[in-house]
Design a protein that fits this description.
With about 160 residues, the chain is an alpha/beta fold. About 25% of the residues lie in helices and about 15% in strands. It is built from seven helices and five strands, in the order H-E-H-E-H-E-H-E-E-H-H-H. This is Radical SAM superfamily protein.
């Protein structure tokens, strides 16, 4: 986790701090309330660890990583959320909420369609353009909006950069 002084420096410069935390079998019982309050991010995204074939499900699926031992149940994820329910900036993302609500590009600029629990690359947007490549993405726009995918991340225009070099 970032330290509170780093977060304070960001805030003094008008930079919003966002923290992402993946909840796994190793941290689902933790109480992070005090730490998050001290860091005071404008947004704290809390993700349930998500398995995707070809990404993190072991050699059987040609994955480079194996996160199967990190998986938690929905009940464990909900217990973590309940323990942190008083944190106003918390934005929970269960597996059901995350699935198909992100646009992911690989190194060849292909959208990765994760609809069937894997990562199937589509056509490169460098070859067919964004509109055509989006047809391969498996992106659920409604799910994106319902999970709060659009939010104000910009610095306040009234605040200068406030550099202190």
């Amino acid at each position: 986790m970032p330290d509170s002084e780093s977060c304070a420096r960001c805030r003094r410069r008008g930079i919003k701090v966002k923290i992402n935390t993946v909840i796994t079998i190793h941290n689902w019982e933790e109480d992070m309330v005090e730490s998050i309050r001290e860091l005071a991010p404008f947004r704290w995204k809390v993700f349930q660890v998500l398995l995707l074939d070809g990404e993190n499900t072991g050699r059987e699926t040609n994955s480079l990583r194996d996160a199967r031992e990190l998986v938690i149940t929905d009940e464990q994820f909900n217990a973590f959320l309940e323990r942190h329910r008083d944190i106003d900036c918390l934005v929970p993302e269960s597996n059901a909420v995350m699935r198909d609500s992100y646009l992911n590009l690989d190194e060849e600029m292909r959208f990765l369609n994760c609809k069937d629990g894997g990562k199937k690359p589509g056509r490169s947007l460098l070859r067919v353009g964004v509109q055509e490549a989006m047809k391969d993405a498996g992106f659920d726009e409604e799910r994106f909006f319902s999970r709060g995918g659009v939010f104000d991340w910009k610095r306040d225009p009234d605040e200068g950069p406030n550099f202190d070099w």
